[in-house]
Amino acid sequence: MEVLDIFKLIRTRKPALVKHAMQAWERDHSGQVEVLIETIKLADAELIETALLLAAKYHPEACAAEICTLLANPEARVRRLAVQAINIRMAKACSQPLSKLLADETDVFVLASAANAAAELHLDVECLKPALRHTDIRVRANAVRAVARCCPARIQELLEPMLQDKALRVQNEALRALAQFVPEKDLEQLISRRMQSDNPSVRAATAFIAGELPISMRMPFLLEALSDKDARVVSNATRSLCKIHDPAGLRAVISTYFNVAEKSLASALLRQLNPEDSYIFVELAESAGKPGKLEPELLMRIIAAALHFNDWERLLPWLMAAVDHDNCDVRLAALQVVMQKINFFSSNIDRMVEKARRSGNSQEIALSHFIRWKSGDLAELEALKEMLFSGRKADIAAVSDLFNQENSILTRKILEEAGKRGIYIADRDTVLPPRPIKLPES
């Protein structure tokens, strides 16, 4: 495509054609800076984004003046795109206009991007002071990062007050920035004070960032945080320990997972573990005792990990103990794993659901029929339908819950049929037909 043809496409002001023109320019005519300047002059957010990216990549000095004119554009999105295109090679032309924008801008998205650009150009830190006091969290957080790059000499003066910011994100950015310049001993004292704060939000923010800080005491701080009374602190400490990936920290996290009372917190801890952490998990599970003699809650925690780790087969001894357990909740938890791993158990399904089928519990019976059906025994679907149409509330609830989760065409049709028979199905998206109202006889 010739340059004149590219100009023709640009002047159509149609986004798709302008984008095609930019692709052709980059492929065949990337030395022709006039094409980029012509496109940037359109000053339309729908048209200039690609041109700005190409200008920053190929001709930053030549396009800088035109990009600066966009900083005063009345449309906020245009200003933001222009700010995001600024790089260090545009410093001579853009420093003063960017400083003015930081002083006058009201749009928070433009301001947040402008703080990043200020860091790129190493502007005078005085330009960033208003952003440090801004009401928007993103603006303050970006300003903290920018201050660290623009003026390391004044970092303690400007950023230590940000450790008291009400937003955890801003606190963490300030901690991360200060860690580069503060002596390790002073940083450890600061972390220690924050970890002992009466404010759980401060402790949580500190636990979140502590794993990234260059201090030798980070492991003791995080291990102690695992026993905090606030779930956010425990969860954030777990995240940091899993990122550090030290075996001692992983053992502490897994032990906390085994023993913590809150189920939601336990689930959050399990999600933080990496797939390769299963060897430590199994080691600690084995040290807890024989699978068949474990407390029900602990056994359920262990088998729940079968849905998290790739090499879950190492947890089969606990799963086999769970399907034969006397506790109904344990058996149900085990059956949920069996259902998710149904292909693995396809040749041994009867053994896995045997006790559940004889339990007398509607949920277990329904789940055992459902598992056998999904493994290929089509006759089990009739057993599920019989339970659904039986009129017994427990059976109806158990089967309808499974069918709602399955949400296939077949199960939806069965539930619709149940609705037509006047059977109430909870948690359905479809509206059941109203029952006819019997009027009193006259």
In percent, how helical is the residue content?
Answer: 55-70%
CATH architecture of the domain at 1-123: Alpha Horseshoe
Largest sheet: none
Oligomer: single chain
Q: What's the total number of strands? A: 0
Class computed from helices, strands and strand pairing: mainly alpha
Distance between the termini: 87 Å
CATH class category of the domain at 1-123: Mainly Alpha
- How large is the share of residues in beta strands? under 5%
Give a structural overview.
It is a single chain. This protein is 67% helix and 0% strand. The C terminus is likely disordered. The N and C termini lie far apart (87 Å). It contains 28 helices and no strands. The protein has a domain of 123 residues: Leucine-rich Repeat Variant, CATH 1.25.10.10. It has 442 residues and is mainly α. Helix 14 packs parallel to helix 16 and helix 20 packs parallel to helix 22.
Describe the secondary structure blueprint for this structure.
Elements: H1 3-11, H2 15-28, H3 33-40, H4 45-58, H5 60-70, H6 76-85, H7 91-104, H8 108-121, H9 129-132, H10 137-150, H11 155-159, H12 168-178, H13 184-195, H14 200-210, H15 218-225, H16 231-244, H17 247-259, H18 263-272, H19 278-287, H20 296-304, H21 316-323, H22 328-340, H23 342-345, H24 349-357, H25 362-374, H26 379-388, H27 393-406, H28 409-420
Properties at a glance:
442 residues; Leucine-rich Repeat Variant; extended; disordered C terminus
